[in-house]
Amino acid sequence: MSETTLSHLRSVGFFRELAPNTLDIVAARMIPRRYPKGRLLFREGEPCRGLFILTRGKVEIYRSRSDGREHVLHVELPVQSVAELPLFDGGPYPASGRAAEDSDLLFLSLDDFRRLYLEHPAIAHAVIQNLGRRLRHLVQTLQRVSLLGVPARVASLLLELAKNSGALRNDGTFFLPYTQGQMAQLLATTRESVARALSDLRGKGLIRQEGRKVLIVDLLGLEKVVEGED
Q1: Contact criterion met (CB below 8 Å) for 47 and 92
Q2: CA 145, CA 196: separation in Å to the nearest integer?
Q3: pLDDT at position 147 over 80
Q4: What's the longest Cα–Cα distance across the chain?
Q5: Percentage of residues of the chain with pLDDT beyond 70
Q6: CB-CB contact of 88 with 134 (8 Å)
Q7: 218 in the Ramachandran plot: left (φ > 0), alpha (ψ -120 to 50) or beta?
Q8: pLDDT tens column, 42-95
């Protein structure tokens, strides 16, 4: 199997701690797939076909409303598993997934995943831990959207992205993985509101921004915006 495939698997939360021989077994069953921008991975309500791992590009997880409008729930970035919940509860996909740009993924069939899950307890334990992290992230997202004003939502998202990228441990610089339109969808607001919030944060000297390059200038001040103190 490819060393690149092994490297990608080691980057995924529920494969990271697996013993090398177990990881080799998983890698041998992975099928590489390429999805052009706009191509569906799965549709809401369809039965689960297997596990997707995004290695390049972006995948939007979204739901369609009765009026034809769409609401983006989350944007997956590399390297990450995609929509793994139906693998365990036997239900259909709760939302749709599509490539937001040209993307590469690894695919493991449902039968292969279940066989590995049952035969290797380490995988089961790691998957449960990953689902716990997903649930924690979901709670944070719901809190952000339901309880915070738009400036605080934007500030909260910037802090999360900075933390996840390691920027807070270094010089505070990171690159936005989303356009303002994508941020608006994630934060349940409009692109214009996101633009105003970013402009306001820049005006207050809390961040500097050059295109998608962002520098956290005043971490405490940004945290106060999230907490409603500013």
Answers
A1: yes
A2: 17
A3: no
A4: 56
A5: 90
A6: no
A7: beta
A8: 999 899 989 999 999 999 988 887 677 787 877 888 988 888 778 877 788 888
> How distant, in Å, are the alpha carbons of 14, 75, 145, 184, 206 from that of 153?
29, 16, 7, 10, 15
The pLDDT tens digits of the residues spanning 206-218 come to 999 999 899 999 9
Dump pLDDT digits (tens) for 48-59.
Answer: 989 999 999 999
26-55 average pLDDT score: 92
Q: Cβ(17)–Cβ(122) under 8 Å?
A: yes
3-state secondary structure 52-109: EEEEECCEEEEEECCCCCEEEEEEECCCEEECCCHHHHCCECCCEEEECCCEEEEEEE
Helix pair 150-165, 191-203: axis angle to 10 deg: 70
Is the peptide bond prior to 79 cis by the omega test (within 30 degrees of 0)? yes
* Residue type, position 119, single letter: E
Contact between 209 and 198 under an 8 Å Cβ cutoff? The reply is yes
Phi, psi of 195 (to 5 degrees): -60, -45
- Return the amino acid letter for 185: Q
